[in-house]
Design brief:
The structure holds 2 protein chains of 2 kinds. By secondary structure, chain A is an alpha/beta fold. Chain A has 6 helices and 7 strands, in the order βαββββαβααααβ. The longest helix of chain A is centred in the first third of the chain and has 14 residues. The chains are: A alpha/beta, B alpha/beta. Chain B: One of its GO terms (molecular function) is oxidoreductase activity, acting on the aldehyde or oxo group of donors.
Protein backbone atom coordinates (compact mmCIF):
# COMPACT_ATOMS: atom_id res chain seq x y z
CA UNK A 1 0.00 0.00 0.00
CA UNK A 2 1.21 3.50 -0.85
CA UNK A 3 0.14 6.22 1.56
CA UNK A 4 0.23 9.88 0.55
CA UNK A 5 -0.22 13.15 2.41
CA UNK A 6 -0.97 16.40 0.58
CA UNK A 7 -0.24 19.81 2.10
CA UNK A 8 -1.82 22.92 0.65
CA UNK A 9 -3.82 25.99 1.52
CA UNK A 10 -7.62 26.11 1.39
CA UNK A 11 -8.58 26.82 -2.23
CA UNK A 12 -5.44 25.44 -3.88
CA UNK A 13 -6.96 22.03 -4.39
CA UNK A 14 -5.00 19.70 -2.11
CA UNK A 15 -8.17 17.71 -1.51
CA UNK A 16 -8.92 17.61 -5.25
CA UNK A 17 -5.34 16.50 -5.89
CA UNK A 18 -5.78 13.51 -3.53
CA UNK A 19 -9.15 12.70 -5.06
CA UNK A 20 -7.87 12.73 -8.64
CA UNK A 21 -5.02 10.37 -7.79
CA UNK A 22 -7.43 7.96 -6.05
CA UNK A 23 -9.92 8.12 -8.92
CA UNK A 24 -7.22 7.41 -11.50
CA UNK A 25 -6.04 4.41 -9.47
CA UNK A 26 -9.60 3.08 -9.16
CA UNK A 27 -10.17 3.59 -12.90
CA UNK A 28 -7.20 1.32 -13.59
CA UNK A 29 -8.58 -1.45 -11.40
CA UNK A 30 -6.65 -0.69 -8.23
CA UNK A 31 -8.13 0.10 -4.85
CA UNK A 32 -7.80 3.60 -3.44
CA UNK A 33 -9.24 5.96 -0.88
CA UNK A 34 -8.84 9.73 -0.54
CA UNK A 35 -10.05 11.97 2.24
CA UNK A 36 -9.51 15.46 3.63
CA UNK A 37 -8.22 16.20 7.09
CA UNK A 38 -11.69 16.38 8.55
CA UNK A 39 -12.84 19.75 9.73
CA UNK A 40 -14.06 23.21 8.79
CA UNK A 41 -12.81 24.58 5.48
CA UNK A 42 -11.26 28.05 5.23
CA UNK A 43 -9.67 29.60 2.17
CA UNK A 44 -5.98 30.23 2.67
CA UNK A 45 -5.60 28.19 5.84
CA UNK A 46 -3.22 25.20 5.81
CA UNK A 47 -5.04 22.07 4.60
CA UNK A 48 -4.01 18.42 4.67
CA UNK A 49 -5.48 15.64 2.54
CA UNK A 50 -4.67 11.96 2.32
CA UNK A 51 -4.75 9.13 -0.22
CA UNK A 52 -4.06 5.42 -0.12
CA UNK A 53 -3.51 3.20 -3.17
CA UNK A 54 -3.23 -0.58 -3.06
CA UNK A 55 -3.73 -3.69 -5.18
CA UNK A 56 -6.05 -5.09 -2.51
CA UNK A 57 -9.19 -3.66 -0.87
CA UNK A 58 -8.24 -1.02 1.70
CA UNK A 59 -9.59 -1.66 5.19
CA UNK A 60 -7.55 0.94 7.05
CA UNK A 61 -9.68 3.98 7.86
CA UNK A 62 -7.54 5.91 10.31
CA UNK A 63 -5.49 8.97 9.35
CA UNK A 64 -2.07 8.60 7.74
CA UNK A 65 0.78 9.17 10.19
CA UNK A 66 3.70 7.68 8.24
CA UNK A 67 3.20 8.47 4.56
CA UNK A 68 5.38 7.10 1.76
CA UNK A 69 4.84 10.29 -0.22
CA UNK A 70 4.42 13.89 0.92
CA UNK A 71 3.24 16.46 -1.63
CA UNK A 72 3.50 20.18 -0.84
CA UNK A 73 1.35 22.40 -3.07
CA UNK A 74 2.41 25.73 -1.57
CA UNK A 75 6.04 26.69 -0.92
CA UNK A 76 5.05 29.13 1.85
CA UNK A 77 3.99 26.16 3.99
CA UNK A 78 7.66 25.23 4.47
CA UNK A 79 8.05 28.31 6.65
CA UNK A 80 5.23 27.29 9.00
CA UNK A 81 5.97 23.63 9.63
CA UNK A 82 8.18 20.84 8.41
CA UNK A 83 6.08 18.72 6.02
CA UNK A 84 8.48 15.77 6.27
CA UNK A 85 7.19 14.87 9.76
CA UNK A 86 6.39 11.15 9.79
CA UNK A 87 7.64 10.58 6.23
CA UNK A 88 8.73 6.97 5.96
CA UNK A 89 12.36 6.12 5.36
CA UNK A 90 12.79 5.54 1.64
CA UNK A 91 9.81 7.79 0.96
CA UNK A 92 9.72 10.88 -1.23
CA UNK A 93 9.02 14.56 -0.69
CA UNK A 94 7.45 16.35 -3.68
CA UNK A 95 7.51 20.12 -3.54
CA UNK A 96 6.20 23.05 -5.53
CA UNK A 97 9.10 25.47 -5.38
CA UNK A 98 11.21 27.73 -7.54
CA UNK A 99 14.27 26.83 -5.45
CA UNK A 100 16.71 24.05 -6.21
CA UNK A 101 16.35 20.64 -4.49
CA UNK A 102 19.57 20.91 -2.47
CA UNK A 103 18.66 24.22 -0.85
CA UNK A 104 15.22 22.90 0.11
CA UNK A 105 16.73 19.77 1.65
CA UNK A 106 19.11 21.96 3.62
CA UNK A 107 16.30 24.26 4.78
CA UNK A 108 14.28 21.29 6.04
CA UNK A 109 17.22 19.25 7.31
CA UNK A 110 15.92 16.48 5.07
CA UNK A 111 18.18 13.78 3.64
CA UNK A 112 15.81 11.62 1.59
CA UNK A 113 14.55 11.59 -1.97
CA UNK A 114 13.05 14.85 -3.24
CA UNK A 115 11.20 15.99 -6.34
CA UNK A 116 10.88 19.68 -7.15
CA UNK A 117 8.82 21.49 -9.75
CA UNK A 118 7.95 25.16 -10.14
CA UNK A 119 4.25 24.34 -10.21
CA UNK A 120 3.19 27.89 -9.34
CA UNK A 121 4.82 29.26 -12.48
CA UNK A 122 3.45 26.47 -14.70
CA UNK A 123 -0.06 26.92 -13.30
CA UNK A 124 0.05 30.66 -13.85
CA UNK A 125 1.31 30.26 -17.41
CA UNK A 126 -1.01 27.42 -18.47
CA UNK A 127 -4.12 28.04 -16.36
CA UNK A 128 -3.72 31.72 -15.61
CA UNK A 129 -4.26 30.90 -11.91
CA UNK A 130 -1.89 29.91 -9.09
CA UNK A 131 -3.93 26.74 -8.39
CA UNK A 132 -1.34 23.99 -8.35
CA UNK A 133 -3.33 20.80 -7.75
CA UNK A 134 -3.36 19.42 -11.29
CA UNK A 135 0.21 20.56 -11.91
CA UNK A 136 1.40 18.73 -8.80
CA UNK A 137 -0.33 15.56 -9.99
CA UNK A 138 2.15 15.63 -12.89
CA UNK A 139 5.07 15.87 -10.48
CA UNK A 140 3.63 13.04 -8.38
CA UNK A 141 3.28 10.73 -11.38
CA UNK A 142 6.76 11.56 -12.63
CA UNK A 143 8.53 11.03 -9.31
CA UNK A 144 6.65 7.98 -8.00
CA UNK A 145 5.68 6.08 -11.16
CA UNK A 146 2.47 5.23 -9.32
CA UNK A 147 0.42 5.44 -12.52
CA UNK A 148 0.55 6.64 -16.12
CA UNK A 149 -0.21 10.24 -17.07
CA UNK A 150 -2.75 8.71 -19.45
CA UNK A 151 -4.85 7.20 -16.63
CA UNK A 152 -5.42 10.65 -15.14
CA UNK A 153 -6.97 12.15 -18.26
CA UNK A 154 -10.39 10.57 -17.72
CA UNK A 155 -10.70 11.70 -14.04
CA UNK A 156 -9.57 15.18 -15.15
CA UNK A 157 -12.29 15.28 -17.81
CA UNK A 158 -14.97 14.18 -15.34
CA UNK A 159 -13.83 16.73 -12.80
CA UNK A 160 -13.06 19.78 -14.92
CA UNK A 161 -15.21 19.40 -18.03
CA UNK A 162 -14.40 22.27 -20.40
CA UNK A 163 -11.20 23.27 -18.64
CA UNK A 164 -9.85 19.70 -18.48
CA UNK A 165 -7.62 20.19 -21.53
CA UNK A 166 -5.66 23.03 -19.94
CA UNK A 167 -5.31 21.10 -16.69
CA UNK A 168 -4.03 18.07 -18.58
CA UNK A 169 -1.54 20.38 -20.30
CA UNK A 170 -0.39 21.72 -16.90
CA UNK A 171 0.01 18.17 -15.59
CA UNK A 172 2.01 17.09 -18.62
CA UNK A 173 4.28 20.14 -18.42
CA UNK A 174 4.97 19.47 -14.75
CA UNK A 175 5.67 15.84 -15.59
CA UNK A 176 8.36 17.04 -18.01
CA UNK A 177 9.84 19.68 -15.71
CA UNK A 178 9.97 17.80 -12.39
CA UNK A 179 13.47 17.34 -11.09
CA UNK A 180 14.03 14.24 -8.96
CA UNK A 181 17.10 14.03 -6.68
CA UNK A 182 17.85 10.93 -4.60
CA UNK B 1 -21.16 -6.40 -12.67
CA UNK B 2 -20.71 -2.68 -13.09
CA UNK B 3 -17.34 -1.04 -13.01
CA UNK B 4 -16.19 0.47 -9.74
CA UNK B 5 -16.22 4.26 -9.68
CA UNK B 6 -14.03 6.39 -7.41
CA UNK B 7 -16.55 8.70 -5.78
CA UNK B 8 -17.23 10.45 -2.50
CA UNK B 9 -19.55 8.33 -0.36
CA UNK B 10 -22.02 11.21 0.21
CA UNK B 11 -22.34 11.87 -3.52
CA UNK B 12 -22.81 8.17 -4.23
CA UNK B 13 -25.54 8.02 -1.57
CA UNK B 14 -27.33 11.00 -3.13
CA UNK B 15 -27.09 9.31 -6.54
CA UNK B 16 -28.67 6.19 -5.03
CA UNK B 17 -31.53 8.27 -3.61
CA UNK B 18 -31.96 9.73 -7.11
CA UNK B 19 -32.03 6.24 -8.65
CA UNK B 20 -34.80 5.32 -6.18
CA UNK B 21 -36.83 8.11 -7.83
CA UNK B 22 -37.65 9.69 -4.50
CA UNK B 23 -40.65 12.08 -4.49
CA UNK B 24 -39.79 14.39 -1.60
CA UNK B 25 -36.48 15.44 -0.07
CA UNK B 26 -36.79 17.71 2.97
CA UNK B 27 -33.57 18.53 4.75
CA UNK B 28 -31.54 21.26 6.36
CA UNK B 29 -27.80 21.29 5.63
CA UNK B 30 -25.50 20.42 8.51
CA UNK B 31 -21.90 19.21 8.56
CA UNK B 32 -20.98 16.43 7.78
CA UNK B 33 -24.24 15.59 6.00
CA UNK B 34 -24.13 18.62 3.68
CA UNK B 35 -22.83 16.98 0.50
CA UNK B 36 -25.74 14.53 0.39
CA UNK B 37 -28.34 17.30 0.44
CA UNK B 38 -26.31 19.57 -1.81
CA UNK B 39 -26.04 16.90 -4.49
CA UNK B 40 -29.74 16.05 -4.27
CA UNK B 41 -30.62 19.71 -4.74
CA UNK B 42 -28.39 19.72 -7.83
CA UNK B 43 -30.11 16.62 -9.21
CA UNK B 44 -33.52 18.25 -8.71
CA UNK B 45 -32.38 21.62 -10.13
CA UNK B 46 -30.89 20.02 -13.24
CA UNK B 47 -34.08 18.05 -13.87
CA UNK B 48 -32.32 14.69 -13.48
CA UNK B 49 -34.54 13.95 -10.49
CA UNK B 50 -38.23 14.76 -10.58
CA UNK B 51 -38.82 15.45 -6.89
CA UNK B 52 -39.94 18.14 -4.48
CA UNK B 53 -36.86 19.50 -2.77
CA UNK B 54 -38.02 21.34 0.34
CA UNK B 55 -35.30 23.59 1.76
CA UNK B 56 -36.81 23.81 5.22
CA UNK B 57 -35.79 26.34 7.87
CA UNK B 58 -34.95 23.74 10.52
CA UNK B 59 -34.62 20.03 11.08
CA UNK B 60 -37.82 20.04 13.13
CA UNK B 61 -39.57 21.21 9.98
CA UNK B 62 -37.62 18.74 7.84
CA UNK B 63 -38.97 15.77 9.78
CA UNK B 64 -42.44 17.33 9.87
CA UNK B 65 -42.44 17.70 6.08
CA UNK B 66 -41.25 14.09 5.80
CA UNK B 67 -44.16 12.90 7.96
CA UNK B 68 -46.64 14.82 5.81
CA UNK B 69 -45.22 13.63 2.53
CA UNK B 70 -44.99 10.00 3.64
CA UNK B 71 -48.57 10.16 4.91
CA UNK B 72 -49.83 11.09 1.44
CA UNK B 73 -47.89 8.23 -0.12
CA UNK B 74 -44.78 10.01 -1.40
CA UNK B 75 -41.38 8.31 -1.31
CA UNK B 76 -39.53 10.41 1.26
CA UNK B 77 -35.91 11.05 2.16
CA UNK B 78 -34.05 13.22 4.63
CA UNK B 79 -30.54 13.50 5.99
CA UNK B 80 -29.10 15.07 9.10
CA UNK B 81 -26.46 14.87 11.84
CA UNK B 82 -26.02 15.48 15.57
CA UNK B 83 -27.68 18.81 16.52
CA UNK B 84 -29.97 18.47 13.53
CA UNK B 85 -31.20 15.13 14.80
CA UNK B 86 -31.56 16.60 18.28
CA UNK B 87 -33.79 19.34 16.89
CA UNK B 88 -35.91 16.88 14.92
CA UNK B 89 -36.06 14.30 17.74
CA UNK B 90 -39.61 15.17 18.74
CA UNK B 91 -40.90 14.31 15.27
CA UNK B 92 -38.52 11.34 14.86
CA UNK B 93 -40.59 9.48 17.46
CA UNK B 94 -43.82 10.55 15.77
CA UNK B 95 -42.71 9.28 12.34
CA UNK B 96 -42.12 5.76 13.63
CA UNK B 97 -45.11 5.64 15.97
CA UNK B 98 -47.34 6.66 13.06
CA UNK B 99 -45.68 3.91 10.99
CA UNK B 100 -44.62 6.32 8.25
CA UNK B 101 -42.12 4.89 5.76
CA UNK B 102 -39.13 7.11 4.95
CA UNK B 103 -35.35 6.90 4.84
CA UNK B 104 -32.96 9.02 6.86
CA UNK B 105 -29.24 9.28 6.11
CA UNK B 106 -27.72 10.04 9.49
CA UNK B 107 -24.18 11.30 9.18
CA UNK B 108 -23.08 10.32 12.69
CA UNK B 109 -21.55 13.21 14.58
CA UNK B 110 -20.86 14.04 18.21
CA UNK B 111 -23.43 16.04 20.16
CA UNK B 112 -22.45 19.45 21.53
CA UNK B 113 -21.11 20.79 23.90
CA UNK B 114 -18.28 21.34 23.32
CA UNK B 115 -19.22 21.97 19.73
CA UNK B 116 -17.81 19.13 17.64
CA UNK B 117 -18.51 18.45 13.99
CA UNK B 118 -16.64 15.14 14.15
CA UNK B 119 -17.71 11.54 14.26
CA UNK B 120 -19.07 9.41 17.04
CA UNK B 121 -22.38 7.67 17.74
CA UNK B 122 -23.84 9.91 20.44
CA UNK B 123 -26.42 11.35 18.03
CA UNK B 124 -27.94 8.05 17.02
CA UNK B 125 -27.90 6.70 20.59
CA UNK B 126 -30.10 9.64 21.55
CA UNK B 127 -32.90 8.14 19.41
CA UNK B 128 -32.06 4.46 19.76
CA UNK B 129 -35.43 3.78 21.44
CA UNK B 130 -37.48 5.73 18.90
CA UNK B 131 -38.78 2.65 17.10
CA UNK B 132 -37.00 3.21 13.78
CA UNK B 133 -35.16 0.45 11.98
CA UNK B 134 -31.50 1.38 12.43
CA UNK B 135 -28.57 0.03 10.42
CA UNK B 136 -24.84 0.79 10.51
CA UNK B 137 -22.46 0.80 7.55
CA UNK B 138 -18.85 -0.24 7.40
CA UNK B 139 -17.81 1.24 4.04
CA UNK B 140 -19.04 3.31 1.11
CA UNK B 141 -20.41 0.39 -0.87
CA UNK B 142 -22.57 -0.59 2.11
CA UNK B 143 -23.87 2.97 2.40
CA UNK B 144 -24.78 3.05 -1.29
CA UNK B 145 -26.47 -0.37 -1.19
CA UNK B 146 -28.25 0.50 2.08
CA UNK B 147 -30.23 3.28 0.35
CA UNK B 148 -32.03 0.81 -1.96
CA UNK B 149 -32.46 -1.73 0.83
CA UNK B 150 -33.84 0.84 3.25
CA UNK B 151 -36.53 2.15 0.89
CA UNK B 152 -37.57 -1.42 0.09
CA UNK B 153 -37.84 -2.44 3.75
CA UNK B 154 -39.38 0.80 4.96
CA UNK B 155 -42.17 0.83 2.38
CA UNK B 156 -42.95 -2.89 2.60
CA UNK B 157 -46.59 -3.00 3.84
CA UNK B 158 -45.58 -5.70 6.32
CA UNK B 159 -43.10 -3.23 7.89
CA UNK B 160 -44.24 0.35 7.24
CA UNK B 161 -41.58 1.90 9.47
CA UNK B 162 -38.92 4.56 8.89
CA UNK B 163 -35.31 3.45 8.41
CA UNK B 164 -32.23 5.27 9.67
CA UNK B 165 -28.92 4.59 7.91
CA UNK B 166 -26.00 5.37 10.22
CA UNK B 167 -22.99 6.62 8.28
CA UNK B 168 -19.89 7.71 10.19
CA UNK B 169 -19.46 11.45 9.61
CA UNK B 170 -16.26 12.33 7.71
CA UNK B 171 -14.80 8.82 8.30
CA UNK B 172 -17.24 7.59 5.66
CA UNK B 173 -19.16 10.57 4.30
CA UNK B 174 -16.12 12.45 3.01
CA UNK B 175 -14.06 9.55 1.70
CA UNK B 176 -13.52 8.90 -2.00
CA UNK B 177 -13.54 5.15 -2.51
CA UNK B 178 -14.44 2.55 -5.14
CA UNK B 179 -18.20 2.02 -5.36
CA UNK B 180 -20.03 -0.23 -7.78
CA UNK B 181 -23.14 1.50 -9.06
CA UNK B 182 -26.57 0.05 -9.79
CA UNK B 183 -28.39 0.80 -13.01
CA UNK B 184 -32.06 1.73 -13.41
CA UNK B 185 -33.10 -1.82 -14.38
CA UNK B 186 -31.60 -3.22 -11.19
CA UNK B 187 -33.42 -0.65 -9.07
CA UNK B 188 -36.68 -1.36 -10.92
CA UNK B 189 -36.31 -5.08 -10.29
CA UNK B 190 -35.42 -4.56 -6.62
CA UNK B 191 -37.56 -1.69 -5.41
CA UNK B 192 -41.32 -1.86 -6.06
CA UNK B 193 -43.35 1.37 -6.20
CA UNK B 194 -44.46 2.77 -2.84
CA UNK B 195 -48.03 1.62 -2.20
CA UNK B 196 -48.98 2.43 1.40
CA UNK B 197 -51.87 0.54 2.99
CA UNK B 198 -53.50 3.82 3.88
CA UNK B 199 -52.75 7.39 2.96
CA UNK B 200 -54.17 10.85 3.41
CA UNK B 201 -56.38 11.77 0.48
CA UNK B 202 -59.32 14.18 0.23
CA UNK B 203 -61.42 11.56 -1.58
CA UNK B 204 -61.12 9.08 1.25
CA UNK B 205 -60.87 10.95 4.49
CA UNK B 206 -59.10 9.40 7.47
CA UNK B 207 -57.20 10.56 10.54
CA UNK B 208 -53.59 9.83 11.32
CA UNK B 209 -51.81 10.57 14.56
CA UNK B 210 -54.91 10.69 16.69
CA UNK B 211 -55.08 11.29 20.42
CA UNK B 212 -54.07 8.22 22.52
CA UNK B 213 -56.08 7.85 25.71
CA UNK B 214 -54.67 5.74 28.56
CA UNK B 215 -56.98 2.95 27.35
CA UNK B 216 -55.12 2.69 24.03
CA UNK B 217 -51.59 4.10 24.46
CA UNK B 218 -50.02 0.89 25.85
CA UNK B 219 -51.61 -1.21 23.12
CA UNK B 220 -50.26 1.16 20.50
CA UNK B 221 -46.75 0.88 21.96
CA UNK B 222 -46.99 -2.91 22.00
CA UNK B 223 -48.18 -2.90 18.38
CA UNK B 224 -45.24 -0.69 17.39
CA UNK B 225 -42.78 -2.96 19.18
CA UNK B 226 -44.27 -6.03 17.50
CA UNK B 227 -44.06 -4.28 14.12
CA UNK B 228 -40.40 -3.42 14.67
CA UNK B 229 -39.32 -6.81 15.99
CA UNK B 230 -41.29 -8.57 13.25
CA UNK B 231 -39.57 -6.61 10.51
CA UNK B 232 -36.45 -8.81 10.63
CA UNK B 233 -37.57 -11.35 7.98
CA UNK B 234 -38.27 -8.51 5.51
CA UNK B 235 -34.90 -6.94 6.29
CA UNK B 236 -33.09 -10.24 5.74
CA UNK B 237 -35.07 -10.99 2.59
CA UNK B 238 -34.10 -7.56 1.25
CA UNK B 239 -30.43 -8.45 1.72
CA UNK B 240 -30.91 -11.90 0.14
CA UNK B 241 -32.58 -10.41 -2.92
CA UNK B 242 -29.79 -7.84 -3.18
CA UNK B 243 -27.18 -10.61 -3.13
CA UNK B 244 -28.85 -12.13 -6.21
CA UNK B 245 -28.59 -8.80 -8.02
CA UNK B 246 -25.17 -7.58 -6.91
CA UNK B 247 -23.32 -10.59 -5.51
CA UNK B 248 -22.87 -8.71 -2.23
CA UNK B 249 -24.40 -10.52 0.74
CA UNK B 250 -25.22 -8.60 3.89
CA UNK B 251 -26.38 -10.01 7.22
CA UNK B 252 -27.66 -8.60 10.49
CA UNK B 253 -24.45 -9.63 12.26
CA UNK B 254 -21.19 -10.59 10.62
CA UNK B 255 -17.94 -11.95 11.95
CA UNK B 256 -14.29 -11.82 11.05
CA UNK B 257 -11.99 -14.66 12.15
CA UNK B 258 -14.37 -15.22 15.04
CA UNK B 259 -14.62 -19.00 14.83
CA UNK B 260 -13.19 -20.39 18.07
CA UNK B 261 -11.97 -16.94 19.12
CA UNK B 262 -11.64 -16.67 22.90
CA UNK B 263 -11.86 -12.90 22.71
CA UNK B 264 -14.33 -11.07 20.50
CA UNK B 265 -14.13 -7.42 19.60
CA UNK B 266 -17.64 -6.04 19.15
CA UNK B 267 -18.12 -2.98 16.94
CA UNK B 268 -20.49 -1.06 14.68
CA UNK B 269 -19.78 1.21 11.71
CA UNK B 270 -16.55 2.13 9.95
CA UNK B 271 -14.37 1.21 12.95
CA UNK B 272 -15.05 -2.43 12.00
CA UNK B 273 -12.73 -2.27 8.98
CA UNK B 274 -9.90 -0.84 11.06
CA UNK B 275 -10.59 -3.52 13.68
CA UNK B 276 -10.10 -6.33 11.14
CA UNK B 277 -6.48 -5.17 10.79
CA UNK B 278 -6.10 -5.30 14.58
CA UNK B 279 -7.52 -8.83 14.57
CA UNK B 280 -4.97 -9.88 11.93
CA UNK B 281 -2.14 -8.40 14.01
CA UNK B 282 -3.25 -10.20 17.17
CA UNK B 283 -3.78 -13.47 15.31
CA UNK B 284 -0.19 -13.18 14.04
CA UNK B 285 0.91 -12.93 17.66
CA UNK B 286 -0.95 -16.18 18.31
CA UNK B 287 -3.81 -14.55 20.18
CA UNK B 288 -7.27 -15.99 19.80
CA UNK B 289 -9.13 -12.83 18.78
CA UNK B 290 -12.01 -12.26 16.37
CA UNK B 291 -14.48 -9.54 15.48
CA UNK B 292 -18.25 -9.28 15.62
CA UNK B 293 -19.67 -6.56 13.38
CA UNK B 294 -23.24 -5.53 14.06
CA UNK B 295 -25.06 -4.05 11.08
CA UNK B 296 -28.65 -4.24 12.34
CA UNK B 297 -28.90 -2.26 15.57
CA UNK B 298 -32.71 -2.06 15.58
CA UNK B 299 -34.38 -4.47 15.71
CA UNK B 300 -31.51 -6.13 17.55
CA UNK B 301 -30.80 -9.65 16.22
CA UNK B 302 -30.87 -11.12 19.72
CA UNK B 303 -30.78 -14.80 18.84
CA UNK B 304 -27.77 -14.45 16.51
CA UNK B 305 -25.90 -12.33 19.02
CA UNK B 306 -26.55 -14.66 21.97
CA UNK B 307 -25.23 -17.61 19.98
CA UNK B 308 -22.10 -15.74 18.86
CA UNK B 309 -21.20 -14.11 22.16
CA UNK B 310 -21.83 -17.24 24.27
CA UNK B 311 -18.87 -18.95 22.59
CA UNK B 312 -16.33 -16.36 23.75
CA UNK B 313 -14.55 -15.96 27.07
CA UNK B 314 -14.28 -12.18 26.72
CA UNK B 315 -16.08 -9.61 24.62
CA UNK B 316 -14.55 -6.16 24.19
CA UNK B 317 -17.19 -3.68 23.07
CA UNK B 318 -15.89 -0.61 21.28
CA UNK B 319 -18.59 1.86 22.25
CA UNK B 320 -18.64 5.07 20.19
CA UNK B 321 -20.55 7.15 22.73
CA UNK B 322 -20.82 7.62 26.46
CA UNK B 323 -23.99 7.37 28.53
CA UNK B 324 -23.25 9.80 31.33
CA UNK B 325 -24.11 8.50 34.77
CA UNK B 326 -25.41 5.20 33.42
CA UNK B 327 -24.34 1.67 34.36
CA UNK B 328 -22.37 1.55 31.13
CA UNK B 329 -22.05 2.86 27.57
CA UNK B 330 -25.09 2.04 25.42
CA UNK B 331 -23.87 -0.89 23.33
CA UNK B 332 -22.08 -2.56 26.26
CA UNK B 333 -25.15 -2.20 28.48
CA UNK B 334 -27.25 -3.83 25.84
CA UNK B 335 -24.89 -6.76 25.29
CA UNK B 336 -24.65 -7.37 29.02
CA UNK B 337 -28.44 -7.31 29.35
CA UNK B 338 -28.72 -9.68 26.41
CA UNK B 339 -26.35 -12.24 27.97
CA UNK B 340 -27.39 -11.96 31.62
CA UNK B 341 -29.70 -14.98 31.68
CA UNK B 342 -27.51 -17.15 29.48
CA UNK B 343 -26.07 -20.20 31.24
CA UNK B 344 -22.77 -19.62 29.46
CA UNK B 345 -21.79 -16.00 29.11
CA UNK B 346 -18.58 -14.08 28.45
CA UNK B 347 -17.09 -11.25 30.45
CA UNK B 348 -18.20 -8.13 28.62
CA UNK B 349 -15.79 -5.20 28.74
CA UNK B 350 -16.40 -1.63 27.64
CA UNK B 351 -13.92 0.59 25.84
CA UNK B 352 -15.30 3.94 24.76
CA UNK B 353 -13.32 4.95 21.70
CA UNK B 354 -13.24 7.51 18.95
CA UNK B 355 -15.61 10.00 20.54
CA UNK B 356 -15.76 13.50 19.08
CA UNK B 357 -13.66 12.43 16.10
CA UNK B 358 -10.63 11.07 17.99
CA UNK B 359 -8.80 8.89 15.48
CA UNK B 360 -8.70 5.14 16.15
CA UNK B 361 -5.85 3.16 14.58
CA UNK B 362 -5.42 -0.63 14.48
CA UNK B 363 -2.77 -0.25 17.22
CA UNK B 364 -5.34 1.55 19.38
CA UNK B 365 -7.71 -1.38 18.96
CA UNK B 366 -4.95 -3.83 19.98
CA UNK B 367 -4.19 -1.70 23.05
CA UNK B 368 -7.87 -1.53 23.99
CA UNK B 369 -8.21 -5.31 23.82
CA UNK B 370 -5.12 -5.75 25.99
CA UNK B 371 -6.34 -3.16 28.48
CA UNK B 372 -9.77 -4.77 28.68
CA UNK B 373 -8.35 -8.25 29.23
CA UNK B 374 -6.12 -7.07 32.06
CA UNK B 375 -8.67 -4.88 33.85
CA UNK B 376 -9.59 -5.67 37.43
CA UNK B 377 -13.00 -4.03 37.40
CA UNK B 378 -15.79 -4.06 34.88
CA UNK B 379 -16.27 -0.33 34.63
CA UNK B 380 -16.27 1.56 31.36
CA UNK B 381 -13.09 3.26 30.20
CA UNK B 382 -12.68 6.18 27.82
CA UNK B 383 -9.67 5.07 25.82
CA UNK B 384 -6.79 7.49 25.38
CA UNK B 385 -8.21 10.20 27.63
CA UNK B 386 -5.53 12.52 29.04
CA UNK B 387 -5.02 13.83 32.56
Amino acid sequence: MIEMRFHGRGGQGAVTCAELVAQAAIDTGKYATAFPSFGPERRGAPVVAFARVDDNPIKLRSKIYNPDVVIVLDPSLLEIANPTVGLREGGILIINSSHDPESIKKQLGYKGKIAVVDAGRIAKEVLGLPITNTTMVGALVKSTGLMEVESLKEPFKRRFGKIAARNIQAMERAFGETLVVA
Amino acid sequence: MGKKVGIEVSIAAAEAVGLCDVDVVAAYPITPQTHVVEHLSELVASGDLDAEFVPVESEHSAMSVCCGSSAVGARTFTATAAQGLALMAEIVYIASSMRLPMVMFLSNRALSAPLSIWNDHSDTMMVRDSGWIQVFCENGQEVYDAIFHSFRVSEDPKVSLPVMINVDGFNLTHVIEPIEFWDKEMVKAYLPPFRPLSKLHPDKVLSMGAFGMPEIYAEQKQAHDVALTSSTPVILQGWDEMAKLTGRKYSAVETYRAEDAETLIFAMGSICETSTIAVDKMREQGKSVGLVKLRLWRPLPMGDLRKLLAKAKDVVVLDRSIALGAANAPVTSEMRALMYHEPQRPKIHCMIAGIGGRDVTPDDVVKMVNMALSEKDYEYHIYGVRG
